[in-house]
Amino acid sequence: MTTAVNPSKNDSLTTNPEQCLRMHRSMLRIRHFEYQVNDLYTRALMPGLAHLYIGEEAVAVGVCEALRSDDYITSTHRGHGHCLAKGAKIDRMFAELLGKEAGYCKGKGGSMHIADPDTGNLGANAIVGGSAGIATGAAFAAKRLGNGRVTVCFFGEGALGQGVLYEVMNMAALWKLPIVYLCENNMYNEYTHYSETTAGDILTRAKGFGVHPESVDGQDVRAVYGAAHALVERARKGDGPAFLLANTYRYTGHHVGDVSRDYYRSKQEEQTWKTERDPIRLMADWMIAQKLADRARLDQMEAEVKSEVEQAVQFAVAAPYPSADKVEQDVYA
Amino acid sequence: MPEVAVAVRELTLGEAVREAIAEELRRDPRVTLLGEDVAEAGTAFKVLSGLVKEFGPERVLDTPISEAGFTGIGVGAAMAGMRPIVDIMFGDFVGLIMDQMMNQAAKVHYMSGGKWKVPMVLRTTLGATRRSAAQHSQSLHAWFCHIPGLKVVLPSTPYDAKGLLKSAVRDDNPVIFYEDKMMYKLKGPVPEEDYTIPLGVADVKREGEDLTIVATSSMVQVALGAAKLLEEYDISAEVVDPRTLWPLDEQTLVGSAKKTSRVMVVDEGYERYGVTAEIAALIQERAFFDLEGPVKRMGAMHVPIPFSPPLEDATVPTEQSVFEAARVLCGK
Question: How far does B155 lie from chain A, in Å, by closest CA?
Answer without folding.
Answer: 21
